[in-house]
Design brief:
CATH topology of the largest domain in chain A: Rossmann fold
Largest sheet of chain B: none
CATH class of the largest domain in chain A: Alpha Beta
Number of strands of chain B: 0
Number of domains of chain A: 2
Shape of chain A: elongated
CATH superfamily of the largest domain in chain A: P-loop containing nucleotide triphosphate hydrolases
Oligomer: heterodimer
Helix content of chain B: over 70%
Radius of gyration of chain A: 24 Å
Distance between the termini of chain A: 26 Å
Order of helices and strands of chain A: EEEHEHEHHHEHEHEEHEHEEHEH
Strand order of the largest sheet of chain A: 5-6-7-3-8-9
Number of strands of chain A: 13
Structural class of chain A: alpha/beta
Largest interface: A-B, 45 and 37 residues
Number of helices of chain A: 11
Structural class of chain B: mainly alpha
Radius of gyration of chain B: 24 Å
């Protein structure tokens, strides 16, 4: 990420509900831009968001969001002027219409009556609720309710958006639509989005940076591109020509390989050095045309499962809270150029 | 195939947010608008107070006209009839009886409209929408309070203002204002006290449950069970002061004291003021605590 100061900083943040440890000394710096907060159910994601809004008081530790400390009463109100929050649950009042709800919440935030009304129409148009804006909310589908919740979070044009499970309960079409909106807000409109989700694809498709949580701890964080950047020791090769000849030539050159679908091989390297010339030489020897050569890329799901698996197998002995994105099986982002076919 | 015509883009807000909007007022206005959307309850709750208000205004007007004699009547008989009406229609008594009549409808209105205000916010989680905005607990509570009090006022306070205004305008030479100003004062004070106390009670019950129906049942139970229990205890022990436990009896005592009417409830009126004060303070303390938990969980 860029050298800009983090938009959210947590320092050894602890939250207990009786005997339940919801957050266990979380230390993390969340950079500006679109950031995913990823974790299984019960990982502490919602608790973290509520702490940031001052809706919960931390047991220990410090939280800072946009330069404010939400634990302080005066700061709490200031935070809420610059943050738009989309709650997880179905929190809409059924007797209201969308315009009424959004404009009322806008006015509470500080918009004038005229501005609130104008903004309500604008954000409802943006989330494509323009035709349903005067309908009572109890007639809304789940997808419409989710979009309305996003609209109310946007009405005062906040600097930061805290979105708690925005695709919950949506059908594939609605989910795709919601992800398009979030992607637009984060990447094109320059909003700082903290997307809280347990759905890996949602985070992968909308966020540039990800913080992985499990059991109240941050177990991994880093840029999505780095995390899924690829495996330097495995290359995937697509080619045209006779498979047997190419396999034999690679074997003669000392490469271990396995077939992955038609006209595609995964080649294992001994060391992460530039062996592309040797592979091309083997291909030339076998009269094969290589059409693509790339590192084997992990999906965020693989990264996530690996991080959670490691965290659970190590238990609490090896916390990686606040650690930068290195080690733990993740690529550190360095690229030796071997993948450039 | 459906053509995609959506071309809306996100527009940035170029203006400035107001530092100190009257947030309680915004919450109240929104609540009032939503409440009055259903016409039938409004009709049922306010039709009788409205009719009663009109009748009382008519009688008050008649009373003051009677003091001038009945126009068009044969000489002597008009003055006689006027004097007769003057004797039968006592304005102070008319107003007191009107207040006593519509008091019950104020209870119904406040309970119907106020019961769900906090309970439904809690059940639906709408408090998260409010408290993720820069609104304080006091502003939120004041907003809900104003909403509920407005509904109660529509049943008793505003009609009382209309009746008193009629009396003021109908009386010759503003006699009612000059000589009976205390009736206006006590009427408005009494109606306001009744509305505020009921509002506090209803919102307190609403803050303790998570459904409007439960809040409705809870409020009526609180009002009528205390009334019934105090009556039974009073009858058994032959001691009227047990009726101090009843909210309505205390208001009856205060009303009779305010309008200078002899009361069968023979305790000191200060005791009733104390009871009402304690109930109100207790409710506000509970409400403050409950609303605090709606905003921040320690």
């Amino acid at each position: 990420m860029s050298g800009a100061p983090p938009i959210i900083s947590l320092d050894k943040l602890v939250k207990r509900f009786g005997k339940v440890q919801a957050l266990d000394g979380v230390t993390v710096d969340v950079p500006q831009g679109a950031v995913g907060l990823l974790g299984p159910n019960g990982a502490g994601k919602t608790t973290m968001i509520k702490l940031l809004l001052g809706l919960l008081v931390p047991t220990k530790g410090k939280a800072n969001i946009a330069g404010f400390r939400p634990k302080k009463r005066s700061h709490r109100l200031a935070v809420r002027r610059v943050v738009g929050y989309m709650p997880e649950g179905d929190c809409l009042l059924p007797d209201m219409s969308a315009v009424e709800l959004v404009s009322t919440l806008g006015r509470i935030t500080g918009l004038t009556r005229e501005d609130a009304m104008t903004r309500s129409h604008e954000v409802l148009d943006y989330v494509e609720l323009e035709e349903a804006r005067y309908r009572k909310l109890d007639q809304y589908s789940t997808g419409m309710k989710q979009r309305l919740k996003l609209a109310q979070a946007l009405v005062h044009d906040p600097k930061i958006l805290l979105l708690d499970e925005p695709t919950n309960g949506l059908d594939p079409k609605g989910r795709r639509h919601m992800l398009t909106l979030i992607d637009d807000l984060g990447r094109k409109q320059g909003k700082n989005v903290l997307l809280c989700s347990h759905l890996l694809h949602d985070v992968e498709s909308t966020c540039d940076y990800v913080v992985v949580m499990n059991k109240g701890r941050v177990i991994q964080q880093g840029a999505v591109a780095d995390m899924t950047g690829g495996d330097n020791l495995r290359l995937v090769v697509s080619y045209e020509g006779a498979s047997e000849d190419f396999a034999r030539a690679l074997g003669d050159a000392g490469f271990r390989h396995e077939s992955r679908g038609e006209r595609e091989l995964v080649i294992e390297l001994e060391t992460a050095v530039d062996d592309a010339d040797d592979i091309f030489a083997a291909a030339a020897q076998a009269r094969i045309a290589i059409t693509s050569l790339d590192r084997v890329r992990s999906t965020l799901e693989e990264v996530f499962l690996k991080a959670v698996g490691e965290h659970e197998s190590h238990g609490a002995l090896a916390p990686t809270n606040g650690a930068p994105a290195k080690g733990g099986g993740f690529d550190d982002g360095s690229n030796n150029g071997a993948a450039s076919a | 195939m459906k053509a995609s015509t959506h071309i809306e883009v996100y527009r940035k807000f170029e203006g400035e947010l107001k530092k100190r909007p009257f947030r309680a007022g915004i919450v109240a206005l929104s609540g009032i608008r939503v409440g009055f959307r259903r016409k039938l309850p409004a009709l049922l709750l306010y039709a009788i107070p409205a009719i009663s208000c009109i009748v009382t205004c008519f009688l008050v007007n008649l009373r003051f006209n009677a003091s001038l004699g009945i126009p068009g009547a044969p000489s002597g008989s008009g003055a006689q009839a006027g004097a007769l009406l003057e004797g039968v229609l006592d304005v102070k008594l008319l107003i007191l009886e009107f207040v006593e009549r519509v008091r019950f409808f104020a209870l119904l209105a406040v309970t119907w409209y106020g019961a769900g205000l906090i309970a439904e916010d809690r059940r639906l989680g709408a408090n998260l929408l409010y408290f993720s905005r820069p609104i304080t607990r006091f502003q939120y509570l004041l907003g809900k309070f104003l909403t509920t009090a407005f509904y109660g006022s529509c049943a008793i306070l505003f009609p009382c203002i209309v009746v008193c205004s009629t009396a003021a305008f109908a009386s010759p030479d503003w006699l009612f204002v000059k000589e009976e100003w205390d009736v206006i004062l006590w009427t408005l004070a009494y109606a306001s006290m009744w509305v505020l106390t009921l509002t506090a009670v209803v919102l307190t019950v609403s803050s303790m449950v998570e459904r409007k129906t439960l809040a409705l049942v809870g409020t009526f139970a609180l009002v009528f069970l205390t009334e019934g229990a105090s009556n039974v205890m009073s009858e058994i022990s032959n001691e009227a002061s047990y009726r101090l436990f009843s909210l309505t009896r205390n208001f009856q005592r205060i009303g009779e004291w305010m309008f200078g009417r002899p009361s069968p409830l023979n305790w000191n009126v200060e005791a009733s003021f104390w009871v009402i004060g304690l109930v109100f303070t207790g409710c506000m303390l509970i409400l403050a605590q409950r609303v605090r938990r709606m905003e921040v969980v320690a």
